[in-house]
């Protein structure tokens, strides 16, 4: 065991110790920041100070992909190899970078100076291929030397935003972060002001009347969720903002956070007031280090300005907000797994019921909402539900953000009213298929989604129309594949993603994602065995029907939709 | 009797108190729903999903070990969907680990006519046996990740917290802090984990040695426990 000095870690642990186990992830992250990994001695110190059993600390360390138990290189590079980035050349980049670094101090018995990791989607799909160098995203990596790359020198990505309307993204289009002063100048925090003059139930009624439903993928009515938590008698109550955006192809929450942080904070504050919460968390995925920094600064501003803390804007309403960083686990976007993670545990999803509004974070009534959902709230309050309902359709009111990437001329984030057609979004806004090619397919809803084809171009983008078309809206992801793409490779990458990200709790998903991946490896290498199609269908069906949480229940969704659309793909190689 | 819940399981009308699980309600009228991870004295986690049943109106199959009954619920414990799920789960399990020491699961494989070679070329989990203490061995090639051992070691029984998980997903394995041998952990050798293990992944070392045909004298030698030395271990 290498000797390390605990001196730099101890003051941090002194600060975190009173929180106990809930501070476990922050403590491990702090240790890793100091030592580059979590040395055993540091883990022991953390366990002792936070009163967490050693074995449990180990379990947590082992769960999160961004935490290291053994030394890693001084520079850690994450390269995304999911479909969008793969189409943009991620594999070549992975190979080349790995080769370049092989003679860069990678000797036996010596920690390499650079560690290269194949990463799941980094939420930079409009800038594919995406990579993070020491948590900093860089674009067009092929244009620099590897020395520059290690030094983190290079072009930083900027948000690419378009669309027909600009309600949620109004401030995102300014090309710079909208800090507090600017946000207020645009009418920001007026909704909060208004809310503080209203009874909490009135706020809930307004949100219910707006017809707002969750934008994280499940589309649950937001007002009902708030009402249910408000009616729960247990105390305290919590508001949690789910910013663990990790569905491959999704980057909308990233764009909101990196441009208009106060919009999200205002939404959180209104939710807290409505349900009577005095404490809240915002859980931001670990790969979004920059967005975490932006949000931190915005929270500091809000605290200084009396928008967060005691007696907010001289009212009786008090609320504290704590930012948390994830550590590399897609499953933590599942609400109950996210609670477990905040509580300092492995991100295992819980059995539901009980639902979060009655027994959520720390077993207390909790409202957990997606970033985009909360970003809708200030507008609803300020302009009223009637005005909000003028946007979109009767059954799908409001604006919607779509993350369009892959083989399109202009990948980016598009804000449209619900009800525009897929054709309008794809051709009028995103510029159509790249290189004058035609579309083979578009994946709706990310890895957990389903494929659309040309025959779906005129489907209107609403919950009701997509349901009829058998396509999920999910979190608003549309990944486009042109006619030249090998769908077998796409499926293989999606299967790899789920096999990597399954938490391992329930059998159907734990084993099913692995078996699915193995069969798709055979598909990709044209070596399918007799019966593989039936195996794939049985595994997929069983995961969908019998898995414990949404991850497992959707882990075969894209594969099963591909089997329906392109049955020949799964049969042609079986004869060999 | 006003507090009783009425429901139907496999066409049988049943009256049970509220809060009863489907599993227990079924048992009360002699309907046996198979389980693997469930244990009467452990927290139910609904993770093996073998106990899934079909509940009318539910989107997906429902785990009977945790799902509570409700009025007018209609449950089918042996429908085509239920059987397809159970069989596939068992086939996948058989392709992953060594079930030779798990009599209950072996009987289930028979009952559900499981093709144990359904998944050719599947990656099996077969780490080598860990023999690091005189009391029990850990043969994780037989571990089905039912979680019982971790739970009895923690708040379900002993509050010892010697073991937890390493890795995640298919790569999950029961592990100790930084992979330390058992005598260097908080283990108090209470044996409860061995008691609840359904697959022989945890086994008394004496039994393990006996099965390998070692003579009794040698077994005694190999399983002698130096209490004074070990009692000081954390």
Notable features of this structure?
heterodimer, A: 576 residues, alpha/beta, Glutaredoxin, Rossmann fold, 5 domains, six-stranded mixed beta sheet, 14 strands, 42% helix, B: 234 residues, Ubiquitin-like (UB roll), Alpha-Beta Plaits, 2 domains, five-stranded mixed beta sheet
Give your account of this protein's structure.
Chain A is α/β, with parallel strands linked by helices and 576 residues long. Chain A has five domains: 10-63; 75-150, Glutaredoxin; 169-389, Rossmann fold, CATH 3.40.50; 399-482, Ubiquitin-like (UB roll) (Roll); 487-571, de novo design (two linked rop proteins), CATH 1.20.1440. Chain A contains 25 helices and 14 strands. Chain A has helices at residues 10-16, 24-35, 40-50, 54-63, 83-87, 90-102, 146-150, 180-185, 190-196, 200-210, 222-231, 252-259, 261-275, 289-304, 335-342, 371-383, 385-389, 422-429, 463-469, 487-501, 507-524, 532-546, 550-554, 557-565, 567-571; strands spanning 75-80, 114-119, 131-133, 136-138, 161-163, 238-243, 279-284, 320-325, 366-370, 399-406, 412-417, 439-444, 450-452, 477-482. In chain A, the strands form three sheets. A six-stranded mixed sheet of chain A has the order 5-11-10-14-12-13, sandwiched between helices. Chain A has a four-stranded mixed sheet with strand order 2-1-3-4, with helices on one face. In chain A, strands 8-7-6-9 form a four-stranded parallel sheet, with helices on both faces. In chain A, β10 (399-406) and β11 (412-417) form a beta hairpin. In chain A, α21 (507-524) packs antiparallel against α22 (532-546). Chain B contains eight helices and nine strands. The termini of chain B are far apart. The radius of gyration of chain B is 21 Å and the shape is globular. Chain B folds into two domains: 1-122, Ubiquitin-like (UB roll); 136-230, 2-Layer Sandwich (Alpha-Beta Plaits). In chain B, the strands form three sheets. Chain B has a five-stranded mixed sheet with strand order 2-1-5-3-4, with helices on both faces. In chain B, strands 6-9 form a two-stranded antiparallel ribbon. Chain B has a two-stranded antiparallel ribbon with strand order 7-8. The model of chain B has no long low-confidence stretch (mean pLDDT 95). Helix content of chain B is 26%, strand content 14%. Chain B is α+β, with helices and mostly antiparallel strands. At the A-B interface, α4, α20, α21 and α22 of A face α2 and β7 of B.
């Amino acid at each position: 065991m290498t000797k390390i000095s605990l001196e730099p870690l101890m003051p941090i642990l002194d600060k975190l110790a009173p929180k106990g186990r809930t501070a476990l992830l922050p403590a491990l992250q702090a240790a890793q920041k100091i030592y580059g990994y979590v040395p055993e001695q540091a883990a022991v110190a953390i366990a002792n100070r936070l009163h967490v059993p050693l074995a449990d600390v180990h379990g947590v360390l082992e769960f999160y992909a961004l935490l290291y138990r053994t030394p890693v290189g001084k520079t850690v590079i994450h390269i995304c190899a999911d479909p969008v980035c793969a189409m943009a050349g991620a594999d070549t980049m992975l190979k080349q970078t790995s080769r370049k670094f092989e003679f860069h101090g990678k000797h036996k018995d010596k920690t390499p100076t650079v560690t290269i990791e194949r990463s799941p989607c980094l939420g930079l799909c409009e800038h594919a291929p995406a990579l993070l160098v020491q948590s900093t995203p860089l674009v067009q990596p092929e244009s620099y030397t590897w020395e520059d790359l290690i030094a983190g020198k290079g072009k930083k990505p900027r948000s690419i935003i378009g669309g027909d309307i600009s309600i949620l993204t109004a401030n995102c289009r300014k090309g710079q972060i909208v800090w507090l002063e600017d946000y207020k100048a645009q009418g920001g925090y007026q909704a909060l002001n208004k809310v503080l003059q209203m009874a909490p139930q009135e706020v809930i009624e307004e949100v219910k009347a707006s017809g707002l439903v969750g934008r994280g993928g499940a589309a649950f009515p937001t007002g009902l969720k708030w009402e249910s938590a408000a009616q729960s008698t247990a105390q305290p109550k919590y508001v949690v903002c789910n910013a663990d955006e990790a569905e491959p192809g999704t980057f909308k929450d990233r764009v909101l956070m990196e441009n208009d942080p106060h919009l999200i904070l205002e939404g959180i504050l209104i939710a807290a007031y409505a349900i009577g919460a005095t404490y809240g968390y915002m859980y931001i995925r670990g790969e979004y280090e920059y967005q975490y920094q932006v949000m931190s600064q915005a929270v500091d501003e809000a605290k200084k300005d009396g928008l967060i803390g005691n007696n907010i804007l001289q009212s009786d309403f008090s609320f504290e907000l704590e930012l948390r960083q994830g550590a590399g686990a897609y499953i933590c976007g599942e609400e109950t797994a996210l609670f477990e993670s905040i509580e300092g545990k492995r991100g295992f999803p819980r059995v539901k019921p009980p639902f979060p509004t009655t027994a959520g974070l720390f077993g207390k009534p909790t409202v957990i909402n997606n970033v985009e959902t909360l970003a809708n709230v200030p507008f609803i309050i300020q302009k009223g539900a009637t005005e909000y309902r003028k946007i979109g359709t009767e059954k799908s009111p409001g604006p919607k953000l779509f993350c369009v990437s892959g083989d399109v001329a202009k990948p980016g984030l598009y804000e449209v009213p619900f009800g525009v057609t897929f054709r309008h979004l794809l051709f009028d806004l995103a510029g159509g298929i790249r290189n004058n090619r035609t579309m083979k397919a578009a994946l709706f809803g990310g890895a957990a989604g389903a494929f659309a084809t040309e025959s779906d171009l005129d489907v209107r983008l609403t919950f009701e129309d997509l349901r009829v078309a058998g396509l999920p809206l999910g979190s608003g992801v549309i990944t486009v594949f042109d006619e030249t793409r090998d769908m077998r490779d796409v499926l293989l990458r999606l299967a790899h993603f789920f096999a990597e990200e399954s938490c391992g709790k329930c059998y159907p998903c734990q084993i099913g994602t692995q078996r699915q991946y193995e069969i798709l490896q055979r598909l990709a290498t044209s070596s399918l065995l007799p019966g593989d199609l039936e195996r794939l269908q049985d595994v997929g069906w069983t995961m969908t029907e019998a898995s414990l949480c949404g991850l497992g229940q959707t882990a075969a969704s894209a594969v099963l939709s591909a089997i329906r659309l392109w049955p020949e793909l799964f049969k042609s190689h079986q004869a060999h | 009797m006003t507090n009783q819940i009425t429901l139907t399981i496999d066409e049988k009308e049943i009256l049970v108190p509220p809060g009863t699980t489907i599993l227990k309600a079924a048992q009360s009228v002699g309907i046996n729903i198979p389980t693997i991870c469930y244990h009467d004295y452990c927290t139910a986690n609904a993770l093996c999903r073998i106990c899934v049943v079909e509940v009318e109106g539910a989107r997906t199959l429902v785990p009977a070990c945790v799902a509570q009954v409700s009025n007018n619920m209609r449950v089918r414990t042996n429908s085509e969907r239920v059987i397809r799920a159970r069989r596939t789960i068992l086939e996948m399990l058989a392709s992953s680990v060594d079930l030779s020491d798990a009599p209950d699961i072996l009987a289930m494989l028979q009952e559900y006519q499981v093709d144990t070679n359904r998944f050719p070329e599947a990656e099996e989990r077969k780490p080598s046996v860990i023999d690091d203490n005189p009391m029990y061995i850990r043969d994780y090639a037989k571990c089905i990740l039912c979680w019982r051992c971790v739970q009895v070691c923690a708040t379900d029984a002993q509050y010892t917290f010697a073991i937890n998980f390493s890795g995640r997903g298919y790569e999950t394995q029961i592990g100790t802090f930084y992979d330390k041998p058992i005598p260097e952990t908080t283990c108090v050798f209470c044996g409860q984990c061995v008691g609840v293990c359904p697959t022989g992944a945890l086994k008394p070392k004496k039994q393990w040695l006996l099965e390998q045909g070692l003579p009794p004298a040698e077994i005694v030698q190999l399983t002698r426990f130096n209490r004074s030395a070990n009692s000081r271990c954390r």
